[in-house]
Amino acid sequence: MKQSLSIKVLIVFAAISALGACTHRVDVAAKEPITINLNVKVDHEIRVKVDKELDNLFSDDSELF
To answer: Is residue 13 classed exposed, middle or buried when 0-12, 13-18 and 19+ CB atoms within 10 A define those classes?
Structure first.
């Protein structure tokens, strides 16, 4: 009984080792190196329009704050 158990363990270990040895291999070969040019120009403009009433409300003379 002890011998059959050790044989089963050995078979399971061999099967796990065989499956662990299987690895996928992907080769990516290019004739020229890959070049990425990032010429980016970001222009932004922020426009804030304040009504005359709001401007007067937030002025230094007002006691709002």
So the answer is: exposed
pLDDT at 65: 55
Q: Which one of 19-23, 32-36, 49-53 scores highest in mean pLDDT? A: 32-36
Query: What's the mean pLDDT in 30-40?
Result: 85
Q: Where are the alpha helices (DSSP H) in 1-65?
A: 2-20, 52-57
Query: C-alpha angle with apex 15: 10 to 25, nearest 5 degrees?
Result: 145
CA atoms of 13 and 8, how far apart (whole Å)? 8
The dihedral region occupied by 60, where left means phi > 0, alpha psi between -120 and 50, and beta the remainder, is alpha
pTM of the model: 0.31
